[in-house]
Amino acid sequence: MQTRPIYGLILAGMLTFSGSFSVCAQDKLNVIKSGSAKEMHAFFKYTGNDRLLIAGHRGGMVKGFPENSIATFENTLKHTPTFFEIDPRLTKDSVIVLMHDATLDRTTTGTGNLKDYTYEELKKFRLKDAEGNVTNFQIPTLAEVIEWARGKTILNLDRKDVPLKMTADLIRKYKADAFVMLTVHNPAEARFYLDDNKDRMFSAFVTNKKQFDEYEQAGIPFTQMIAYIGPRVKPDNQELYTMLHKKGTMCMISAASSYDKLKSAEERKAAYISIVKDGASILETDLPIEVAETVDDLIKKDTPKKKFFGRK
User: Fold this and answer.
1) Considering the domain boundaries, does residue 14 fall inside one?
2) Distance in angstroms (rounded) separating the CA atoms of residues 307 and 81
3) How confident is the model at residue 1 (pLDDT cuts 50, 70, 90)?
4) Interatomic CA distance for residues 22 and 65, integer angstroms
5) What is the pLDDT of residue 27?
6) Is 8 helix (H, G, I), strand (E, B) or coil?
7) Three-state SS at 198
8) Between 227 and which of 35, 178, 206, 221 could a Cys-Cys bridge form, CB atoms 3.0 to 4.6 Å apart?
9) Number of structural domains the chain divides into
10) Alpha-carbon span 81 to 308, nearest angstrom
11) Domain that holds residue 94
């Protein structure tokens, strides 16, 4: 009895949702649970007894899984709990979609500027993985990604070309303040979002004492931010750790532009371990699955924050 073709069709249907990947029921995800903005603040608060957090930069880069796609987010969560830094951009008709580059060429089958296409026109293109392989996945909207992330993880929206008010309005529309945070490059951006909603959570650029002082003078609450301190382990980090930890702020080093690019797995492993030992609470990476496997022995799992982690 020939059942394989029928089974294949059923399976293909199970794996498709709005042009995005959705795992089968038996493939449980490692989730991060945040039911309110206050819970998200508590999740990211530095206590000195925290589990190392892994941030998937654009979701994580694995063959067959393109950046900034639900397919990749789900694949990563099958291996490790992760929150995701993603890149919202505007289409010609003002739909917010995920795309790091201003142009389509590197990550899709399209060409030219994203802003020159309507969302309907973008639907004909397919996403490419980091090696340039064409996948079956389409460019997702931010709204789709927010609905997918609810109850599964936390999203960190990077700052691209979407007006601040439009971003704030969309978060409010989808009641997503419990699990959506915002990258801000200066205190003025943070102040705009706080004036819109006093409970907003941020990923702030605090790479030196001058920037630390600017956030403090602007009255931006350090209990509502994580601090990106740079891409490398260096002696200057220690002053930042001391200042920020006193405020209850977790510090993040991003390996995406630095250590992720080392050629050998052994070199990368040594670099990831050095980040943890340096004092960072958060490691942002293009390779979250590899990082999780590499530093697993260094991750404290039995901490008061274990209540935020689960399987779904």
Assistant:
1) no
2) 13
3) very low
4) 12
5) 83
6) helix
7) coil
8) 206
9) 1
10) 10
11) 34-311
